[in-house]
Amino acid sequence: MEIFAIMFVGLIVLLMLGVPVAFAMIASSAAVLAYTRGFAEIPLEMIAQRTLYGVNSFTLLAIPAFLLIGRLMNSAGISDRVFDVARCAVGHLKGGLGHVNVLASMLFAGMSGSAVADAGGLGAVEIKAMEDDGFPTDFSAAVTASSATIGPIIPPSIPAVIYGALANASIAAIFLGSILPGLFMGAGLMVMVAVISHRRGYPTRARATMAEFTRALSRGLLPMLTPVIILVGILSGLFTPTEASVVALLYCMIISFCVYRSITLREFVQILRDTAIDTSVLLLIIAGSALYSWILARYQVTALVADFLLATVSDPMVLLLLLSLFILLIGLFIDSVPALFLLTPLLVPVVVQYGIDPVHFGVLMIFNLMIGLITPPVGTVLFAIQKITDLPFNTLVRATLPFYIPLVAVLIVITLFPSIVMFLPNLLLK
User: Fold this and answer.
1) DSSP alpha helices (H): ranges in 354-417?
2) Do the beta carbons of residue 424 and residue 176 sit within 8 Å?
3) Where is this chain's protein located in or outside the cell (predicted)?
4) Which of 118, 128, 259, 276 has its CA 20 to 30 A from that of 415?
Protein backbone atom coordinates (compact mmCIF):
# COMPACT_ATOMS: atom_id res chain seq x y z
CA MET A 1 0.00 0.00 0.00
CA GLU A 2 2.95 2.34 0.62
CA ILE A 3 4.01 2.02 -3.02
CA PHE A 4 0.44 2.66 -4.21
CA ALA A 5 0.27 5.78 -2.03
CA ILE A 6 3.57 7.08 -3.39
CA MET A 7 2.61 6.42 -7.00
CA PHE A 8 -1.02 7.46 -7.07
CA VAL A 9 -1.59 9.87 -4.21
CA GLY A 10 1.86 11.38 -4.70
CA LEU A 11 1.17 11.90 -8.39
CA ILE A 12 -2.18 13.59 -7.67
CA VAL A 13 -0.52 15.90 -5.15
CA LEU A 14 2.20 16.87 -7.62
CA LEU A 15 -0.41 17.58 -10.30
CA MET A 16 -2.45 19.70 -7.88
CA LEU A 17 0.71 21.68 -7.11
CA GLY A 18 1.06 22.48 -10.81
CA VAL A 19 3.96 20.16 -11.67
CA PRO A 20 3.78 19.27 -15.40
CA VAL A 21 2.24 15.85 -15.97
CA ALA A 22 5.32 14.22 -17.52
CA PHE A 23 7.63 15.36 -14.72
CA ALA A 24 5.06 14.41 -12.06
CA MET A 25 4.93 10.84 -13.44
CA ILE A 26 8.72 10.58 -13.61
CA ALA A 27 9.11 12.05 -10.12
CA SER A 28 6.57 9.71 -8.51
CA SER A 29 8.18 6.72 -10.26
CA ALA A 30 11.65 7.79 -9.10
CA ALA A 31 10.26 8.23 -5.58
CA VAL A 32 9.17 4.58 -5.55
CA LEU A 33 12.65 3.49 -6.67
CA ALA A 34 14.19 5.67 -3.96
CA TYR A 35 11.83 4.21 -1.34
CA THR A 36 12.57 0.60 -2.29
CA ARG A 37 16.28 0.85 -3.19
CA GLY A 38 17.53 3.95 -1.46
CA PHE A 39 18.13 7.37 -2.95
CA ALA A 40 21.73 6.63 -3.87
CA GLU A 41 20.71 3.46 -5.72
CA ILE A 42 18.15 4.94 -8.11
CA PRO A 43 18.90 3.34 -11.52
CA LEU A 44 19.12 6.46 -13.66
CA GLU A 45 20.06 4.46 -16.76
CA MET A 46 16.91 2.38 -16.38
CA ILE A 47 14.75 5.50 -16.01
CA ALA A 48 16.25 6.91 -19.22
CA GLN A 49 15.77 3.62 -21.04
CA ARG A 50 12.14 3.18 -20.00
CA THR A 51 11.15 6.74 -20.87
CA LEU A 52 12.79 6.46 -24.29
CA TYR A 53 11.09 3.11 -24.89
CA GLY A 54 7.71 4.74 -24.30
CA VAL A 55 7.88 6.94 -27.40
CA ASN A 56 9.49 4.33 -29.67
CA SER A 57 6.14 3.28 -31.15
CA PHE A 58 4.88 3.24 -34.73
CA THR A 59 1.29 3.71 -33.48
CA LEU A 60 2.10 7.08 -31.92
CA LEU A 61 2.92 8.54 -35.35
CA ALA A 62 -0.85 9.03 -35.74
CA ILE A 63 -0.90 11.71 -33.03
CA PRO A 64 1.02 14.49 -34.86
CA ALA A 65 -0.88 13.63 -38.06
CA PHE A 66 -4.30 14.06 -36.42
CA LEU A 67 -3.15 17.21 -34.59
CA LEU A 68 -1.99 18.68 -37.90
CA ILE A 69 -5.28 17.72 -39.59
CA GLY A 70 -7.24 19.59 -36.91
CA ARG A 71 -5.14 22.73 -37.27
CA LEU A 72 -5.35 22.62 -41.07
CA MET A 73 -9.13 22.29 -40.95
CA ASN A 74 -9.44 25.26 -38.61
CA SER A 75 -7.10 27.46 -40.66
CA ALA A 76 -8.46 26.53 -44.09
CA GLY A 77 -11.97 27.87 -43.47
CA ILE A 78 -13.45 24.38 -43.26
CA SER A 79 -15.49 25.34 -40.19
CA ASP A 80 -17.74 27.69 -42.18
CA ARG A 81 -18.36 25.08 -44.87
CA VAL A 82 -19.28 22.38 -42.36
CA PHE A 83 -21.55 24.78 -40.48
CA ASP A 84 -23.41 25.68 -43.70
CA VAL A 85 -24.09 22.00 -44.42
CA ALA A 86 -25.47 21.48 -40.92
CA ARG A 87 -27.57 24.65 -41.15
CA CYS A 88 -29.26 23.48 -44.36
CA ALA A 89 -29.86 20.01 -42.91
CA VAL A 90 -31.43 20.77 -39.50
CA GLY A 91 -31.77 24.56 -39.20
CA HIS A 92 -35.55 24.32 -39.65
CA LEU A 93 -36.08 22.22 -36.50
CA LYS A 94 -37.33 23.84 -33.29
CA GLY A 95 -34.24 25.35 -31.77
CA GLY A 96 -32.79 26.15 -35.18
CA LEU A 97 -29.11 26.88 -34.89
CA GLY A 98 -28.87 24.95 -31.61
CA HIS A 99 -29.39 21.76 -33.62
CA VAL A 100 -27.06 23.08 -36.31
CA ASN A 101 -24.42 23.60 -33.63
CA VAL A 102 -24.62 19.96 -32.49
CA LEU A 103 -24.70 18.50 -36.01
CA ALA A 104 -21.77 20.67 -37.12
CA SER A 105 -19.74 19.41 -34.17
CA MET A 106 -20.59 15.82 -35.11
CA LEU A 107 -19.41 16.44 -38.67
CA PHE A 108 -16.29 18.29 -37.56
CA ALA A 109 -15.52 15.51 -35.07
CA GLY A 110 -14.77 13.27 -38.03
CA MET A 111 -11.93 15.58 -39.02
CA SER A 112 -10.29 17.06 -35.93
CA GLY A 113 -10.36 14.32 -33.28
CA SER A 114 -10.07 16.94 -30.55
CA ALA A 115 -12.67 18.65 -28.36
CA VAL A 116 -10.54 21.75 -27.85
CA ALA A 117 -9.96 22.05 -31.62
CA ASP A 118 -13.72 21.85 -32.14
CA ALA A 119 -14.42 24.44 -29.44
CA GLY A 120 -11.66 26.80 -30.53
CA GLY A 121 -12.21 26.59 -34.29
CA LEU A 122 -15.82 25.75 -35.04
CA GLY A 123 -17.03 27.17 -31.72
CA ALA A 124 -16.43 30.80 -32.67
CA VAL A 125 -18.44 30.34 -35.88
CA GLU A 126 -21.30 28.58 -34.06
CA ILE A 127 -21.62 31.07 -31.23
CA LYS A 128 -21.57 34.12 -33.50
CA ALA A 129 -24.21 32.61 -35.80
CA MET A 130 -26.48 31.73 -32.87
CA GLU A 131 -26.14 35.19 -31.35
CA ASP A 132 -26.94 36.80 -34.73
CA ASP A 133 -30.04 34.60 -34.90
CA GLY A 134 -31.34 35.82 -31.53
CA PHE A 135 -30.06 33.15 -29.13
CA PRO A 136 -28.65 34.37 -25.81
CA THR A 137 -24.89 34.11 -25.46
CA ASP A 138 -24.96 31.79 -22.44
CA PHE A 139 -27.19 29.23 -24.20
CA SER A 140 -25.10 29.44 -27.37
CA ALA A 141 -21.92 28.89 -25.38
CA ALA A 142 -23.42 25.99 -23.41
CA VAL A 143 -24.53 24.16 -26.56
CA THR A 144 -21.13 24.75 -28.16
CA ALA A 145 -19.20 23.48 -25.13
CA SER A 146 -21.39 20.39 -24.78
CA SER A 147 -21.29 19.46 -28.46
CA ALA A 148 -17.50 19.91 -28.58
CA THR A 149 -17.16 16.83 -26.36
CA ILE A 150 -18.28 14.72 -29.33
CA GLY A 151 -14.97 15.53 -31.07
CA PRO A 152 -12.84 12.82 -29.41
CA ILE A 153 -15.67 10.25 -29.50
CA ILE A 154 -16.55 10.06 -33.20
CA PRO A 155 -13.41 8.87 -35.05
CA PRO A 156 -10.74 9.83 -35.71
CA SER A 157 -9.88 10.42 -32.07
CA ILE A 158 -6.56 11.37 -30.51
CA PRO A 159 -7.57 9.94 -27.08
CA ALA A 160 -8.50 6.66 -28.80
CA VAL A 161 -5.03 6.44 -30.35
CA ILE A 162 -3.43 7.12 -26.97
CA TYR A 163 -5.61 4.58 -25.16
CA GLY A 164 -5.04 1.95 -27.83
CA ALA A 165 -1.28 2.40 -27.60
CA LEU A 166 -1.27 2.26 -23.79
CA ALA A 167 -3.71 -0.64 -23.45
CA ASN A 168 -2.39 -2.61 -26.43
CA ALA A 169 -5.94 -2.59 -27.81
CA SER A 170 -7.10 -2.36 -31.42
CA ILE A 171 -7.36 1.30 -32.41
CA ALA A 172 -9.59 0.34 -35.35
CA ALA A 173 -11.98 -1.41 -32.94
CA ILE A 174 -12.03 1.60 -30.62
CA PHE A 175 -12.76 3.89 -33.59
CA LEU A 176 -15.68 1.69 -34.67
CA GLY A 177 -16.93 1.21 -31.11
CA SER A 178 -17.10 4.97 -30.61
CA ILE A 179 -19.36 5.71 -33.58
CA LEU A 180 -22.73 4.71 -32.07
CA PRO A 181 -22.03 6.36 -28.67
CA GLY A 182 -21.02 9.52 -30.55
CA LEU A 183 -24.26 9.49 -32.53
CA PHE A 184 -26.23 8.90 -29.33
CA MET A 185 -24.46 11.87 -27.74
CA GLY A 186 -25.47 14.10 -30.62
CA ALA A 187 -29.07 12.86 -30.56
CA GLY A 188 -29.32 13.37 -26.79
CA LEU A 189 -27.95 16.91 -26.99
CA MET A 190 -30.37 17.75 -29.81
CA VAL A 191 -33.29 16.50 -27.71
CA MET A 192 -32.19 18.78 -24.86
CA VAL A 193 -31.84 21.71 -27.29
CA ALA A 194 -35.39 21.07 -28.54
CA VAL A 195 -36.80 20.88 -24.99
CA ILE A 196 -35.14 24.11 -23.87
CA SER A 197 -36.03 25.89 -27.13
CA HIS A 198 -39.71 24.96 -26.78
CA ARG A 199 -39.78 26.21 -23.20
CA ARG A 200 -38.01 29.50 -23.96
CA GLY A 201 -39.42 30.17 -27.43
CA TYR A 202 -36.10 30.25 -29.26
CA PRO A 203 -36.19 30.99 -33.02
CA THR A 204 -36.39 28.54 -35.90
CA ARG A 205 -35.01 29.07 -39.39
CA ALA A 206 -36.91 28.49 -42.61
CA ARG A 207 -36.34 25.13 -44.25
CA ALA A 208 -33.48 25.27 -46.76
CA THR A 209 -34.37 24.70 -50.38
CA MET A 210 -32.86 21.78 -52.26
CA ALA A 211 -30.72 24.23 -54.24
CA GLU A 212 -29.34 25.76 -51.01
CA PHE A 213 -28.63 22.34 -49.53
CA THR A 214 -26.92 21.14 -52.71
CA ARG A 215 -24.78 24.28 -52.84
CA ALA A 216 -23.73 23.92 -49.17
CA LEU A 217 -23.01 20.22 -49.62
CA SER A 218 -20.86 20.86 -52.67
CA ARG A 219 -18.80 23.38 -50.66
CA GLY A 220 -18.37 21.11 -47.64
CA LEU A 221 -18.32 17.62 -49.13
CA LEU A 222 -14.56 17.28 -49.63
CA PRO A 223 -13.51 17.85 -46.00
CA MET A 224 -16.37 15.66 -44.76
CA LEU A 225 -14.92 12.75 -46.72
CA THR A 226 -11.91 12.69 -44.37
CA PRO A 227 -13.40 10.23 -41.82
CA VAL A 228 -14.76 8.12 -44.68
CA ILE A 229 -11.26 7.78 -46.12
CA ILE A 230 -9.89 6.79 -42.72
CA LEU A 231 -12.55 4.18 -41.87
CA VAL A 232 -12.86 2.68 -45.36
CA GLY A 233 -9.09 2.42 -45.66
CA ILE A 234 -8.75 0.69 -42.29
CA LEU A 235 -11.67 -1.70 -42.80
CA SER A 236 -10.58 -2.64 -46.31
CA GLY A 237 -7.10 -3.47 -45.08
CA LEU A 238 -5.43 -0.91 -47.31
CA PHE A 239 -3.64 0.67 -44.36
CA THR A 240 -3.35 0.61 -40.57
CA PRO A 241 -4.85 3.35 -38.36
CA THR A 242 -1.41 4.99 -38.20
CA GLU A 243 -1.05 4.92 -41.98
CA ALA A 244 -4.65 6.15 -42.28
CA SER A 245 -3.75 9.29 -40.34
CA VAL A 246 -0.98 10.10 -42.83
CA VAL A 247 -3.24 9.42 -45.84
CA ALA A 248 -5.93 11.67 -44.31
CA LEU A 249 -3.33 14.36 -43.66
CA LEU A 250 -2.15 14.23 -47.27
CA TYR A 251 -5.77 14.50 -48.43
CA CYS A 252 -6.40 17.53 -46.18
CA MET A 253 -3.26 19.23 -47.47
CA ILE A 254 -4.38 18.71 -51.07
CA ILE A 255 -7.82 20.24 -50.53
CA SER A 256 -6.40 23.08 -48.40
CA PHE A 257 -3.61 24.07 -50.81
CA CYS A 258 -4.80 22.94 -54.24
CA VAL A 259 -8.62 23.08 -54.06
CA TYR A 260 -9.55 25.83 -51.60
CA ARG A 261 -6.17 27.63 -51.66
CA SER A 262 -6.99 29.14 -48.28
CA ILE A 263 -3.64 28.70 -46.49
CA THR A 264 -0.47 30.61 -47.27
CA LEU A 265 3.01 29.17 -46.89
CA ARG A 266 3.67 31.41 -43.88
CA GLU A 267 0.47 30.19 -42.19
CA PHE A 268 1.42 26.59 -42.91
CA VAL A 269 4.84 27.05 -41.31
CA GLN A 270 3.12 28.43 -38.19
CA ILE A 271 0.71 25.49 -38.18
CA LEU A 272 3.66 23.09 -38.37
CA ARG A 273 5.39 24.91 -35.51
CA ASP A 274 2.29 24.78 -33.28
CA THR A 275 1.72 21.11 -34.10
CA ALA A 276 5.35 20.28 -33.28
CA ILE A 277 4.99 21.98 -29.89
CA ASP A 278 1.75 20.13 -29.09
CA THR A 279 3.27 16.83 -30.23
CA SER A 280 6.41 17.28 -28.15
CA VAL A 281 4.29 17.93 -25.04
CA LEU A 282 2.24 14.79 -25.64
CA LEU A 283 5.31 12.65 -26.35
CA LEU A 284 6.98 13.85 -23.18
CA ILE A 285 3.88 12.79 -21.25
CA ILE A 286 3.95 9.42 -23.04
CA ALA A 287 7.60 8.96 -22.06
CA GLY A 288 6.79 9.65 -18.42
CA SER A 289 3.77 7.35 -18.63
CA ALA A 290 5.93 4.50 -19.94
CA LEU A 291 8.15 4.68 -16.86
CA TYR A 292 5.08 5.00 -14.62
CA SER A 293 3.47 1.92 -16.21
CA TRP A 294 6.67 -0.09 -15.82
CA ILE A 295 6.86 0.74 -12.11
CA LEU A 296 3.19 -0.28 -11.71
CA ALA A 297 3.95 -3.64 -13.28
CA ARG A 298 7.36 -4.09 -11.59
CA TYR A 299 5.92 -3.70 -8.09
CA GLN A 300 2.61 -5.42 -8.92
CA VAL A 301 0.49 -2.42 -7.99
CA THR A 302 -2.19 -3.33 -10.53
CA ALA A 303 -2.31 -6.86 -9.12
CA LEU A 304 -2.88 -5.46 -5.62
CA VAL A 305 -5.69 -3.22 -6.89
CA ALA A 306 -7.21 -6.16 -8.77
CA ASP A 307 -7.05 -8.42 -5.71
CA PHE A 308 -8.72 -5.76 -3.58
CA LEU A 309 -11.53 -5.26 -6.08
CA LEU A 310 -12.00 -9.01 -6.63
CA ALA A 311 -12.43 -9.41 -2.88
CA THR A 312 -15.02 -6.64 -2.61
CA VAL A 313 -16.81 -6.52 -6.02
CA SER A 314 -17.94 -9.65 -7.83
CA ASP A 315 -20.22 -8.28 -10.56
CA PRO A 316 -18.42 -6.83 -13.62
CA MET A 317 -21.27 -4.37 -14.22
CA VAL A 318 -21.00 -3.03 -10.66
CA LEU A 319 -17.27 -2.66 -11.23
CA LEU A 320 -17.85 -0.67 -14.43
CA LEU A 321 -20.28 1.66 -12.67
CA LEU A 322 -17.85 2.21 -9.79
CA LEU A 323 -14.94 2.82 -12.17
CA SER A 324 -17.06 5.26 -14.21
CA LEU A 325 -17.76 7.24 -11.05
CA PHE A 326 -14.07 7.13 -10.16
CA ILE A 327 -13.00 8.31 -13.64
CA LEU A 328 -15.59 11.10 -13.55
CA LEU A 329 -14.13 12.30 -10.24
CA ILE A 330 -10.58 12.16 -11.65
CA GLY A 331 -11.80 14.12 -14.69
CA LEU A 332 -12.92 16.95 -12.42
CA PHE A 333 -9.32 17.72 -11.52
CA ILE A 334 -7.13 16.32 -14.33
CA ASP A 335 -7.40 16.99 -18.05
CA SER A 336 -8.42 14.10 -20.29
CA VAL A 337 -5.05 13.23 -21.85
CA PRO A 338 -3.05 13.17 -18.58
CA ALA A 339 -5.89 11.18 -16.98
CA LEU A 340 -5.64 8.59 -19.77
CA PHE A 341 -1.93 8.16 -19.10
CA LEU A 342 -2.57 7.90 -15.37
CA LEU A 343 -5.54 5.51 -15.38
CA THR A 344 -5.05 3.23 -18.39
CA PRO A 345 -2.06 1.21 -17.08
CA LEU A 346 -3.70 0.97 -13.66
CA LEU A 347 -7.26 -0.02 -14.64
CA VAL A 348 -7.03 -2.01 -17.88
CA PRO A 349 -5.36 -5.07 -16.27
CA VAL A 350 -8.08 -5.00 -13.61
CA VAL A 351 -11.04 -4.93 -16.01
CA VAL A 352 -9.49 -7.66 -18.15
CA GLN A 353 -9.51 -9.96 -15.11
CA TYR A 354 -13.26 -9.37 -14.86
CA GLY A 355 -13.74 -10.43 -18.48
CA ILE A 356 -14.52 -6.89 -19.64
CA ASP A 357 -13.46 -6.12 -23.20
CA PRO A 358 -10.72 -3.44 -23.19
CA VAL A 359 -12.32 -1.85 -26.27
CA HIS A 360 -15.61 -1.37 -24.39
CA PHE A 361 -13.78 -0.05 -21.36
CA GLY A 362 -11.70 2.30 -23.51
CA VAL A 363 -14.79 3.89 -25.03
CA LEU A 364 -16.29 4.28 -21.55
CA MET A 365 -13.11 5.85 -20.19
CA ILE A 366 -12.85 8.34 -23.05
CA PHE A 367 -16.56 9.17 -22.73
CA ASN A 368 -16.17 9.80 -18.98
CA LEU A 369 -13.18 12.04 -19.52
CA MET A 370 -14.99 14.04 -22.22
CA ILE A 371 -17.67 14.93 -19.67
CA GLY A 372 -14.82 16.16 -17.48
CA LEU A 373 -13.85 18.63 -20.21
CA ILE A 374 -17.02 20.63 -19.47
CA THR A 375 -16.97 20.11 -15.69
CA PRO A 376 -15.28 22.58 -13.32
CA PRO A 377 -12.78 23.20 -11.87
CA VAL A 378 -10.55 21.90 -14.71
CA GLY A 379 -12.91 22.04 -17.70
CA THR A 380 -10.60 22.74 -20.64
CA VAL A 381 -13.43 23.21 -23.13
CA LEU A 382 -15.27 25.55 -20.74
CA PHE A 383 -12.20 27.78 -20.55
CA ALA A 384 -11.84 27.73 -24.34
CA ILE A 385 -15.47 28.80 -24.76
CA GLN A 386 -15.15 31.43 -22.03
CA LYS A 387 -12.22 32.92 -23.90
CA ILE A 388 -14.41 33.24 -27.01
CA THR A 389 -17.47 34.71 -25.27
CA ASP A 390 -16.03 36.59 -22.23
CA LEU A 391 -18.89 35.16 -20.16
CA PRO A 392 -18.39 34.87 -16.39
CA PHE A 393 -17.31 31.31 -15.62
CA ASN A 394 -20.19 30.72 -13.20
CA THR A 395 -22.70 31.83 -15.83
CA LEU A 396 -21.24 29.43 -18.38
CA VAL A 397 -21.27 26.51 -15.95
CA ARG A 398 -24.87 27.22 -14.94
CA ALA A 399 -25.99 27.35 -18.58
CA THR A 400 -24.21 24.05 -19.30
CA LEU A 401 -25.84 22.11 -16.45
CA PRO A 402 -28.91 20.84 -18.40
CA PHE A 403 -26.65 19.26 -21.02
CA TYR A 404 -25.06 16.97 -18.45
CA ILE A 405 -28.36 15.06 -18.41
CA PRO A 406 -28.16 13.57 -21.95
CA LEU A 407 -24.41 12.99 -21.65
CA VAL A 408 -24.70 11.06 -18.38
CA ALA A 409 -27.76 9.20 -19.70
CA VAL A 410 -25.81 7.99 -22.76
CA LEU A 411 -22.87 7.04 -20.51
CA ILE A 412 -25.14 4.87 -18.35
CA VAL A 413 -26.72 3.24 -21.42
CA ILE A 414 -23.42 2.27 -23.05
CA THR A 415 -22.16 1.01 -19.68
CA LEU A 416 -25.17 -1.24 -19.09
CA PHE A 417 -25.38 -2.39 -22.71
CA PRO A 418 -21.86 -3.19 -23.98
CA SER A 419 -23.34 -4.49 -27.26
CA ILE A 420 -23.92 -0.88 -28.33
CA VAL A 421 -20.18 -0.26 -28.27
CA MET A 422 -19.15 -3.67 -29.56
CA PHE A 423 -21.73 -4.00 -32.36
CA LEU A 424 -19.71 -2.39 -35.16
CA PRO A 425 -16.33 -3.85 -34.13
CA ASN A 426 -17.85 -7.34 -33.96
CA LEU A 427 -19.66 -6.84 -37.25
CA LEU A 428 -16.83 -5.38 -39.30
CA LEU A 429 -13.63 -6.72 -37.76
CA LYS A 430 -14.50 -10.37 -37.25
Assistant:
1) 358-372, 380-389, 393-400, 404-416
2) yes
3) Cell inner membrane
4) 118
What pLDDT shows up at residue 126?
81
Within a domain: 17: no
Inside any domain, residue 11:
no
Which of 80-84, 96-100, 411-415 ranks highest by mean pLDDT?
411-415
With helix as H, strand as E and coil as C, how does 314-337 read? CCHHHHHHHHHHHHHHHHHHCCHH
pLDDT tens, 121-150?
Answer: 677 778 888 888 888 999 999 999 999 898
Q: Domain of 151?
A: 43-428
How many domains would you assign to the chain?
1
Q: How far apart are CA 331 and CA 11, in angstroms?
A: 15
- AA letter at 285: I
Is residue 70 a contact partner of residue 111, using CB atoms and an 8 Å limit?
yes
Cα separation of 109 and 152, whole Å? Answer: 7
Q: What is the pLDDT of residues 278-294, one digit of tens each?
A: 888 878 888 887 888 78
The answer to whether the beta carbons of residues 125 and 79 sit under 8 Å apart is yes
Judged against a pLDDT cut of 80, whether residue 375 lies above it is answered with yes
